């Protein structure tokens, strides 16, 4: 039974690292392609670059804190982040379909603010307990 719990935790940790790595990769794309992406999305190039830096910070913090924060905390924060991303995407799309030029700015704006909030929450979260894995393993 303890092996099942351990493998579940390992998959969650791998998921958190993959999520952070995706943010870092997306950051590189945003920074390298700020001008063409900005034109495509109807946003200024500087906003794309700033969003890239924010994603780089958020992804780096996310990767760096996987061992010192509980996966329950990570999961809650990732669900909140991704839920906000979906809402920002739907809002941006709705605005674009209605002819507004601000849809891209809403979407990129979320991707600028949210990773910084995510990183701040992760930094402020209490460190994970090393005994919690042992307790969970013995209670199953």
Give structural notes.
There is one protein chain. This protein is mainly α and 140 residues long. It is built from six helices and no strands. The protein has helices spanning 2-32, 34-41, 45-64, 71-97, 103-124, 131-139. Helix 1 crosses helix 6, helix 2 packs across helix 3 (45-64) and helix 4 (71-97) runs antiparallel to helix 5 (103-124). The relative contact order is 0.16. The model is unreliable at 131-140 (pLDDT under 50).
Shape: elongated
Classify the helix fraction into a percent range: over 70%
Please state the CA-atom Rg, rounded to the nearest Å. Answer: 18 Å
How many β-strands, per DSSP? 0
Summed up, the helix count is 6
User: What is the succession of H and E elements?
Assistant: HHHHHH
Main sheet attributes: strand count, strand direction, barrel closure? none
What portion of the residues fall into strands of 2 or more residues? under 5%
Which spans of ≥5 residues are poorly predicted at pLDDT below 50?
131-140
What structural class do you assign from the helix and strand content? Answer: mainly alpha
Q: Cα distance, first to last residue? A: 7 Å
For the residues shown, what is the average pLDDT? Answer: 86
How would you describe this structure in keywords?
84% helix, elongated, 6 helices, 140 residues, mainly alpha, single chain, disordered C terminus
Compact overview of the structure:
This protein is mostly helical. 84% of the residues lie in helices and 0% in strands.
């Amino acid at each position: 039974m303890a092996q099942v719990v351990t493998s579940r935790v390992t998959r969650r940790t791998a998921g958190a690292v993959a999520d952070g790595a995706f943010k870092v990769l997306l950051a590189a794309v945003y920074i390298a392609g700020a001008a063409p992406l900005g034109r495509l999305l109807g946003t200024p190039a500087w906003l794309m670059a700033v969003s890239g830096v924010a994603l780089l910070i958020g992804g780096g913090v996310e990767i760096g804190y996987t061992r010192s924060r509980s996966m329950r905390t990570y999961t809650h924060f990732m669900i909140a982040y991704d839920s906000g991303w979906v809402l920002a995407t739907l809002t941006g799309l709705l605005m674009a379909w209605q002819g507004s030029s601000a849809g891209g700015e809403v979407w990129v704006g979320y991707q600028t603010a949210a990773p910084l909030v995510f990183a701040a929450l992760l930094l402020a979260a209490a460190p994970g307990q090393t005994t919690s894995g042992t307790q969970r393993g013995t209670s199953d």
